Structures are given as structure tokens and as C-alpha cells.
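Please complete every field before forwarding. Incomplete forms are returned to the sender.

SECTION A: IDENTIFIERS
Entry label: holo-210
Bound molecule: magnesium ion
Molecule representation: SMILES string

SECTION B: INPUTS
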Amino acid sequence: MADCRLYLCTPQALDPAAFATTLAEALDAGDVACVQLRLKDVDDDTVRRAIDALRPVAQSREVAFILNDRPDLAAETGCDGVHVGQSDWPYAKARKAVGDKAIVGVTCHDSRHLAMEAAEAGADYVAFGAFYQTTTKPSIYRPEPDLLEWWSEMMEVPCVAIGGITADNCAPLVRVGADFICVVTAVWNHPDGPGAGVKALNAAIEAAGE
Ligand SMILES: Cc1ncc(COP(=O)(O)OP(=O)(O)O)c(N)n1
Ligand SMILES: Cc1nc(C(=O)O)sc1CCOP(=O)(O)O
Ligand SMILES: [Mg+2]
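SECTION C: PREDICTED COMPLEX
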């Protein structure tokens, strides 16, 4: 198996009960390291209900369950960690909220400086993107794969590649050292269903690592 693993972000709006089935189908199809619940523009109780439905699906399969944006709710609801961006809670405040044992990941766009800062502060991973065009979260940042190569050679802290990644375009990112490939569309919108999306990405990661 390649060292690189798959990291899934949820769609930004979902029906928790229905999506629990979809998530189980995805996770049962292959290797997934973690799932990030990424809901946007919803109230706290909606986030809590989604966590209650989805966290057990991931954690019962030994898949880490990460909450986007909200360290306070991640700590309150038993998530394995939180992902924060540059406009969210700063790393130190997020770490204080979730504790030393939880995972804290930080968005670093295309910036070596932001990534070094996050890693030195104690982040468990740094995320670079958007590597390719995406409509899920349009980005003004477009790192080159050599950023991942530089990072992997310099630093121990794992790096996540995100943004428009598919089974067809992930190879250059895997080859240069991405520790995780994070996707939304390539799995949830796969024409043959999310399980096929996971299988296709697992196969592409494996092939790129050979
Ligand atoms: C793994 C991963 N990488 C990047 C992001 C983006 O975070 P952020 O810039 O805070 O944007 P939103 O996702 O909050 O819209 C992420 N969520 N996960
Ligand atoms: C949530 C997110 N963050 C990004 C970043 O560049 O920080 S790109 C992105 C969306 C990823 O979705 P898809 O796999 O559908 O392109
Ligand atoms: Mg955010």
C-alpha cells in the first residue's frame, strides 16, 4: 500500500440519516484515513445532529472523524479533531479547546511560511490547496506539486493535498509526497457511487506509489 491515504470531506449540506448510509458505503469500499464533517451556513444544532449520526459510522470503522471550523463543538461532541483555516480560530485557541490528544489540522493554501508556523506551533497536519480547479470551494491559491515535495523532504508533520483532486489527476501529488489526498466531488459525485469513488482513488494512489 502507498504511504499516501485518502481523506474525505463531506458535502457542505446533507441529510444526516441518509448520508450516514452513504458514508458507510464509502468507508466500506476501501481505505479511508479520516472523514471531515464540513457543513456551511448551518446552526449549531444542525452540526450536532450531523455529528451524532456520522461520527459513529466513522469511528466504529477506525476512521478518524474531524469537524471543520468548530473546535468548541468538536470537543463537546467527541470528534477526533478539528480542521481550522486561516480565517477560523487560530491554532493555539483551537488546540486549547480540543486538548493535546485531538487532531488539529490547519489550512496553509500555497504558503511555506503558514505551514512552517502551523507545524512549529504543533499542528498534526498542514493542508495545501487548491491544487486543481474546483467549484466546491473556489480558491485564489494554486500551489504546485513541488510544494509537497519540499515539505515532505523538510518536515515530519504530514501534509494534505486538497482541491479538485480526482483519481485521474492525483498521481503527481502522491509521487512527490502528499501524505493525504482530500476530496469531496471525486467521491460523493462519482457516477457509480461513493464506493466506486473510494475504490478508484485507492487504486490511483496505489498505482502512483509503485
Ligand atoms: C483538509 C482541508 N484542507 C483545507 C480546508 C479548507 O479550510 P478553510 O480554508 O477554513 O475553508 P472551509 O473549508 O472552512 O470553507 C479544509 N476544510 N480541509
Ligand atoms: C474544502 C476545500 N478547501 C480547499 C482549499 O484549497 O483549501 S479546496 C476545498 C474543496 C475540495 O473539494 P473538491 O474535492 O470537490 O475539489
Ligand atoms: Mg474553515
